[in-house]
Design goal:
275 residues; single chain; globular; three-stranded antiparallel beta sheet
Length: 275
């Protein structure tokens, strides 16, 4: 980490989280020296991260939160985590979509952000098992003046199924619907990514639905911020090599980027995509 008094709070907290995950814990006095800010600022950062469930405060510092592999946060809880990174990822991912194509968006807060960036891409067919994603397109249509169908508006196919805490529809009904379709591009949100476990989720039914989504797609793009790296859910549903592209944010450490690049064809870091 680099000393910089002008770091934004969100950037500073991302650096703190990376350090906690990499080293297994940090001390307040170390962070004040490395980040060049006051003891009180670091303590406020640790308080904010602890409230979000991202780390656990201990005397003089912080350690990682050890979650059960079956723990599945709700949509609202996840939506407040890394909002700027998710929006930047969504902006870059949206540029991969050509007008008139058939795409799929899985459940998740990053795919929800992506949906909003796709509203102006004409003539899309969107397959999704996310109630929230479908709502984005539906509300945009209702907002159209006069209530008439907007020229070039997306055609949205929402699968049925059982609803998860993250507002994704999963299970046999969703699986059958997805397997009967074929789409050019799948944007996949994930609970966790690692070399050993690949892509994983705490929900067994969601794992199977995600497999179906990947099976039906010509190309698979994972959209996930750097905090998903190293997280492992109960059920793995794909290996890294099954992914064509991972779009992430600048918080992903350089060492991890090199490791990921050995496993999958494409790694796109939002904000550095022109490099």
């Amino acid at each position: 980490m680099t000393d910089n008094q002008n770091l934004l709070a969100e950037q500073r907290r991302a650096l703190i989280l990376d350090e906690v995950r990499r080293r297994g814990g940090v001390r307040v006095n170390e962070l004040t020296r490395r980040l060049g800010v006051s003891d009180m600022t670091i303590r406020r950062d640790l308080d904010a991260l602890a409230r979000q469930g991202m780390l656990e405060k201990v005397h003089g510092g912080a350690v990682p939160v050890v979650e059960a592999s079956t723990h599945e946060p709700g949509f609202e809880a996840k939506s407040v985590l890394e909002p700027s990174a998710k929006d930047e990822i969504a902006r870059v991912a949206a540029a991969l979509v050509a007008p008139g194509t058939a795409i799929a968006l899985s459940g998740g807060t990053t795919t929800f952000a992506l949906a909003r960036h796709l509203l102006d891409v004409p003539d899309l067919t969107v397959v999704t098992n996310s109630v929230r994603v479908a709502d984005v397109f539906h509300e945009a249509q209702l907002a159209n003046s006069g209530g008439e169908s907007r020229r070039g508006a997306a055609t949205v196919v929402l699968t049925g199924g059982m609803r998860t805490p993250s507002d994704a529809l999963v299970g046999p009904v969703a699986d059958r619907a997805v397997r009967s379709l074929h789409f050019d591009l799948l944007f996949l949100g994930v609970h966790g990514i690692s070399v050993e476990a690949g892509l994983s989720t705490p929900n067994l039914a969601e794992a199977e639905t995600n497999r179906c989504l990947m099976w039906s797609a010509r190309r698979v793009v994972v959209v996930a911020d750097h905090t998903k790296w190293g997280t492992v859910g109960l059920s793995s549903f794909a290996a890294l090599e099954d992914v064509d592209t991972w779009v992430t944010d600048r918080g992903l450490p350089e060492g991890v980027r090199a490791e990921v690049a050995e496993q999958l064809p494409g790694l796109v870091v939002a904000g550095e995509e022109q490099a």
